[in-house]
Amino acid sequence: ARTRRYTFNVTMATVTRLCVTKSVPTVNGRFPGPRLVVREGDRLVVQVHNNINSNVTFHWHGVRQLRSGWADGPSYITQCPIRPGQSYAYDFRIVGQRGTLWWHAHFSWLRATLYGPLVILPPRGVPYPFPKPHRQVTLMLGEWFNADPEAVIKQALQTGGAPNVSDAYTFNGLPGPTYNCSSAAGDDTFRLRVRPGRTYLLRLVNAALNDELFFAVANHTLTVVQADASYVKPFAAATLVISPGQTMDVLLTASASAAAAAPSSAFAIAVAPYTNTVGTFDNTTAVAAVEYGPHQSAAAPLRSLPLPALPRYNDTAAVANFSAMFRSLASARYPARVPRTVDRRFFFTVGLGADPCRSRVNGTCQGPNGTRFAASMNNVSFAMPRTASLLQAHYQRRYSGVLAANFPAVPPTRFDYTGAPPNNTFVTHGTRVVPLSFNTTVEVVLQDTSVLGAESHPLHLHGYDFFVVGTGFGNYDATNDTARYNLVDPVQRNTVSVPTAGWVAIRFVADNPGVWIMHCHLDVHLTWGLAMAWLVNDGPLPNQKLPPPPSDIPRVRLAIKMFPY
Ligand code: C2O
Predict the structure, then answer these.
(1) Does 288 score more than 60 pLDDT?
(2) Which residue has the higher pLDDT, 367 or 47?
(3) Which of 335, 219, 229 is nearest to 268 (CA)?
(4) Full domain range(s) for residue 166
(5) Which of 133, 222, 376, 467 is most open to solvent, judged by the fewest CB atoms within 10 Å of its CB?
(6) CATH code of 26's domain
(7) Are 108 and 147 in a shared domain?
(8) Ligand 1: nearest atom to the Cα of 495
(9) Among residues 328, 356, 374, which one ends one of the domains?
(10) Rounded to two decimals, what is the model's pTM?
(11) Under 8 Å CB-to-CB from 167, ≥6 apart: which residues?
């Protein structure tokens, strides 16, 4: 194992997309940010210097951070933000994980431009459990806003309404030929050059702020081999569904017949949203190209490539069918250590809600029925602490004024979650966490609610991978649904979508001491409070305890103002 050192200089840089030139936060002047490549077992040290006029933190999405919670990165959860002019070194090991993960800013909506891939190669000499690809390509799907994303969310919070949607989806930051407006034709298109008969490993990441995405390549079938840096039983799919936060490694074989069939020898890669969202969404399709042989440099032919067939934007059945395909490898070499018994069971409702307008809000309230949008779990809308990080409070055992260790295990009232909502839809607010003793086996059933319309929510758990042991539509039924759990080869992930008007059950063992946020990876929902945190206590042995914070951890600062309310 080696130590890999990287420096992240966070600076503003000029970027042009969709004919709009603007200054955006970047890492080392690059958008998207640099690709980090490590091997399983390596130590990673990323020295961050904040040179922009905003607070920032970085999160290594999916990295387990075993006893290195100080490096996890969500602002106010495991650290106070790195203030302008400050530095902080994220120092952690990659233990027992391999595949594709990614990193992104975890403060406000800065991850709109501050993100990049984190590729974890197997230990030297260890093969993949699938045919060795000819080449590996990381492909990050993103979302581009012509406006400043910080201004977009700030305005939404002031009016109480939904934020403006993005202007395009992107492939490694490129929106595709439809939007090409430069004279250097084709510059805005991601192109994957392939040779017939060869197989390519696409390391896909959905880095979009607010949209789950369909992904397909015209005339090509994809083979899924990995999800969230865990191997799965390989399966073929014409269309993928990737939720924000999720990663998916897929094999694409360039076929000779495909090349012969197309005169241009190019095929469209298309990305479009999957949503049942309340209100508007970015309903654009982004296009990239798979190119055989000598490529066409002009954008014009790319514009006329036939698009692969994609499901309708709200095709929840197609999404459910795709999700059902995922099984962990569960082989002798890669066993699935699924917890068979459970120490503590939780039932969390997940969904949108509303708040009364407050007097200090400017103008009228543009949320539902003159209220302000909010989101919650078990009707608690998560309030970010302002004076210390939760991990700091936990480490110093000083909860008062920072957090309350009483997040409810079940919702305050039971109702028909996927039917007509109850009358009073107002949420409560608080920084409430669930304390867990070390090594507790946890089951959480996440139930979507239709209070403001049913919608799928990509839930991400920090600090752990979990097993997805069950899922279904309608209201979760403890007796019948539990009996149908898959405890043999359930997929292991760090982000799972709670299906629209449905539920999903996950299990994990709380063997990593620290404070771990679990939240919806749609940034607008996170901003509205769709989050909670687990506080996992130390175990009795020295190697089961959270070490002290590094000396350069950003200092506590009183009265930090994050959002204007
Ligand atoms: Cu990728 Cu808390 O996030």
Answers:
(1) yes
(2) 47
(3) 219
(4) 130-328
(5) 133
(6) 2.60.40.420
(7) no
(8) 1
(9) 328
(10) 0.96
(11) 18, 144, 145, 146, 282, 284
